[in-house]
Amino acid sequence: QVQLVESGGGLVQTGGSLRLSCAASISIISIFMMGWYRQAPGKQRELVAAFTSGGSTNYADSVKGRFTISRDNAKNTVYLQMNSLKPEDTAVYYCNAAYGSGGYLGSYWGQGTQVTVSS
């Protein structure tokens, strides 16, 4: 089991910045993949940014050059730095972790944090 707690959401104007944090209940070194997703009203949940199993990063085209995912292994925390925010970035942002052993890989989600970008 993995508990994920997100923080850092809020209301910001277009062009502003926010940093989201996702604190895990276990060592993130042991987590297979970890990243951020978002879901806007009436839309499907989509990948924003993630660390892959090989340690590289993957970004949605819509956020490349504006968002940066990073990690602090000592704090078991993954961050999402969001710059140059746009109204279309408005969504609930969720942290996700793929973790498991013995041939089983579970998907764990945080409770979500609201990001609202005003025009």
Layout of secondary structure:
Blueprint: E1 4-7, E2 10-13, E3 18-24, E4 33-39, E5 46-51, E6 57-59, E7 67-72, E8 77-82, E9 91-101, E10 104-109, E11 113-118
Parallel strand pairs: 2-11
Antiparallel strand pairs: 1-3, 3-8, 4-5, 4-9, 5-6, 7-8, 9-10, 9-11
Labels describing this entry:
mainly beta; 7-stranded mixed sheet; 4-stranded antiparallel sheet; elongated
What does this structure look like?
A hairpin with a 2-residue loop joins strand 9 (91-101) and strand 10. The protein is built from no helices and eleven strands. Strands 2, 4, 5, 6, 9, 10 and 11 form a seven-stranded mixed β-sheet that branches. 0% of the residues lie in helices and 55% in strands. It is mainly beta and 119 residues long. It is elongated, with a radius of gyration of 14 Å.
Shape from CA axes? elongated
Q: Estimate the mean pLDDT confidence.
A: 95
Please count the helical segments. Answer: 0
Spatial separation of the terminal alpha carbons: 40 Å
- Going by helix content, strand content and strand pairing, the class is mainly beta
Sheet having the most strands: 7 strands, mixed
Topology, number of strands: 11
What is the helical fraction, as a range of percent?
A: under 10%
Uncertain runs are none
Determine the oligomeric state from the structure.
single chain
* Strand content bin: over 45%
Q: Could you state the order of secondary-structure elements as H and E?
A: EEEEEEEEEEE
Radius of gyration: 14 Å
